[in-house]
Amino acid sequence: MHEYSIVQALLTQCEDIATQNEATSVSSIEIKIGAMSGVESHLLKIAFDTFKEGTICDLAELIIHKQPLKIKCNECGNEIELSSPLYKCTKCESLDVKVIDGEDMYLMRLEME
Hints:
Blueprint (H helix, E strand, L loop, with lengths): L2 H18 L5 E9 L6 H11 L9 E7 L1 E5 L5 E4 L14 E5 L3 E8 L1
Parallel strand pairs: 1-2
Antiparallel strand pairs: 1-6, 3-4, 3-5
């Protein structure tokens, strides 16, 4: 379950940011998880709820936004969100595409007190 190590890194990052801003608690954590990131959002939520206890994020709500895979065609410049794992432009059918979003997980926002 690599979601555990992701949660540990997220909690450490939140603690560091809270310390830098002289906050005493974190009330909300907003993240974006890409469709192709390899992170299972429901497992991440379970791990977060389990491991946040006793940390500065003890009372924090975890808000998860799911990001679909987004590509840009290097031939025609078309940008699209893919619903299938076929990396192909739907406009010109070129396979020469670049992933521009949906493969990573990002911390988007923290609410601190």
